[in-house]
């Protein structure tokens, strides 16, 4: 695949919809830094955007980058609204939309004969679309919805308090929560403070396996929660690749330095004022068991992996195209040295 071609990339770790939108616009505008390899042919505009994980920021920037025909491949943006090809013609994903999750949750509720339930969602596209699809499916199965409410972690605190009051006085004990980890943390913490217990939560994939919930206030409220997650998978060679890492390979990475010193309880800086012994340089991750080396629960990571390969396959097909058998007008092919984003998008959709 991709003979004599190296894929360039730029990673943005921005949080917040506005920062993500700025990052997307920066990529669309073109990356004009010099390339060290003189043999590298570098295009000014990126040919694909991988991400974001959230539906809300994806909706925000997809409407902009879509005008430039740049394909966007998300590993975790599940809002069914993004399947609208007229509104989001360049959006793709490696995870099923919430249309399927919502119907699956409705079937789950029916299997347990929970016919009287409450529904709560985060107040955005993701939450409203997801919970509405769930309610429609649940009602088809004869499930009655006692209440349907929404709130946002950035909204007025009184909205959350109003919902807590509703839950407190409701007769249903099963709650379907279509929200992110931020909202469920707030909800669980407030229920815990007011000693409202005996609830059975059914959760969406955005929070049901979030590890940060295990040490959050009110986590006991969520014990026994049910939901669906993406299938775990093995990425060939990743475990071995991670265990070969060494600080000498990343001399300017503060993350690697901190991780190494914490893992081996030693100091990489001999002149630093620390109680740790100096690192010998012979430390190895080969026998270390940590969150970094654990590749047994790769779920959304695998979706990122598939996103990269989706773009790579599209580029590979464009480069290996035979004139007269191409996907464009009159069987024409793309210029391998000047591949355009719209051409990558066409191959991605196929």
UniProtKB/TrEMBL annotation:
Domain spans labelled Receptor ligand binding region: 2-343
Signal peptide: none
Transmembrane region(s): none
GO MF entry, a single one: G protein-coupled receptor activity
Membrane topology note: Multi-pass membrane protein
Subcellular location: Cell membrane
Entries under InterPro entries matching the protein: ANF_lig-bd_rcpt, GPCR_3, GPCR_3_Ca_sens_rcpt-rel, Peripla_BP_I
Keywords: Cell membrane, G-protein coupled receptor, Glycoprotein, Membrane, Receptor, Signal, Transducer, Transmembrane, Transmembrane helix
Highest taxon in the source lineage: Eukaryota
A single cellular component GO annotation: plasma membrane
The name this protein goes by in its record: Receptor ligand binding region domain-containing protein
Organism whose genome encodes this protein: Pleuronectes platessa (European plaice)
């Amino acid at each position: 695949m991709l003979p004599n071609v190296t894929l360039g990339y730029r990673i943005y770790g921005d949080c917040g919809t506005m920062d993500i939108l700025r990052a997307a616009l920066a990529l669309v505008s073109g990356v004009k830094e010099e390339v060290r390899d003189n043999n590298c042919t570098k295009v000014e505009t990126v040919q694909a955007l991988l991400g974001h994980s959230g539906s809300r920021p994806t909706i925000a920037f997809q409407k902009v980058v879509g005008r430039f025909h740049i394909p966007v491949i998300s590993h975790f943006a599940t809002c069914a609204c993004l399947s609208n090809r007229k509104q989001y013609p360049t959006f793709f994903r490696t995870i099923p939309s919430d249309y399927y999750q919502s119907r699956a949750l409705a079937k789950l509720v029916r299997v347990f004969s929970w016919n009287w339930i409450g529904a709560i969602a985060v107040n955005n596209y993701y939450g409203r679309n997801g919970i509405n699809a769930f309610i429609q499916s649940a009602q088809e199965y004869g499930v009655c919805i006692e209440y349907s409410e929404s709130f946002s972690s950035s909204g007025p605190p009184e909205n959350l308090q109003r919902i807590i009051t509703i839950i407190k006085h409701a007769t249903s004990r099963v709650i379907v929560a279509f929200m992110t980890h931020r909202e469920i943390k707030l909800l669980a913490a407030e229920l815990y403070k007011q000693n409202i217990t005996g609830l059975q939560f059914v959760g969406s994939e955005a929070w049901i396996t979030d590890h940060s919930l295990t040490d959050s206030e009110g986590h006991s409220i969520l014990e026994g929660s049910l939901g669906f997650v993406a299938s775990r998978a093995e990425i060939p060679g990743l475990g071995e690749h991670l265990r070969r890492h060494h600080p000498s390979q990343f001399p300017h990475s503060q993350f690697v330095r901190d991780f190494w010193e914490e893992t081996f309880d030693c100091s990489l800086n001999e002149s630093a004022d620390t109680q740790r012994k100096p690192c010998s340089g012979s430390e190895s991750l080969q026998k270390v068991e940590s969150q970094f080396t654990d590749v047994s629960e790769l779920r959304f990571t695998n979706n990122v992996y598939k996103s990269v390969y989706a773009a790579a396959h599209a580029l590979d097909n464009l480069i290996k195209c035979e004139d007269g058998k191409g996907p464009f007008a009159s069987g024409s092919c793309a210029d391998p040295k000047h591949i355009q984003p719209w051409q990558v998008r066409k191959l991605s959709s196929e």
